[in-house]
Amino acid sequence: MDTEPTSYRDRKVISIGTVSELTGLSERQIRYYEERKLVFPDRTKRGFRKYSFDDVERLMDIADKIEDGVQTFEIRQEMIRKKKAETKENVRENMLRGQLNAHFNLRK
């Protein structure tokens, strides 16, 4: 990972076995969702997957959607749309912050 996680929720410290126990999903299902690019675990030097608490919640949300008949492709498309919307909002916030800083001669 490029940067140190800011919250304990983001730290990738949970093994796939524990994630399986917490979510009720099989390890095979969890690996399948990784293959479908719905969850992104880190890997240890020995190749073991490590998940965060946010990943656990995402997997539970994915399982609920799958149970409701939503396809993995649709879930992935929704994730992409949300990420784009978050990125646009961050750009807007940074632009506004920059304009305010420039207007009031503020430096960070």
Question: What structural keywords apply?
Answer:
108 residues; mainly alpha; 2 domains; 3-stranded antiparallel beta sheet; 4 helices; 3 strands; elongated
The count of DSSP E runs of length 2 or more, i.e. the number of strands, is 3
User: How many domains, in number, for the residues?
Assistant: 2
Distance between the termini: 26 Å
Low-confidence stretches: none
Count of helices? 4
User: In CATH, what is the class of the largest domain?
Assistant: Mainly Alpha
Largest sheet: 3 strands, antiparallel
Mean pLDDT: 91
Shape: elongated
Rounded to the nearest angstrom, the radius of gyration is 18 Å
Side-by-side strand order of the widest sheet: 1-3-2
Protein structure class: mainly alpha
Name given to the CATH architecture of the largest domain: Orthogonal Bundle
Helix proportion range:
55-70%
Would you list the SSEs in sequence order as H and E?
Answer: EHHEEHH
**Beta-strand share of residues:** 5-15%
CATH topology tier name of the largest domain: Multidrug-efflux Transporter Regulator, Chain: A, Domain 2
What would you note in describing this structure?
A hairpin with a 5-residue loop joins strand 2 (42-43) and strand 3. It is elongated and about 55 Å long. 11% of the residues are buried. By secondary structure, the chain is mainly alpha-helical. The chain has helices spanning 16-23, 27-35, 53-67, 72-103, and strands at residues 14-15, 42-43, 49-51. It has a three-stranded antiparallel beta sheet. The chain folds into two domains: 1-70, Multidrug-efflux Transporter Regulator, Chain: A, Domain 2 (Orthogonal Bundle); 71-108.
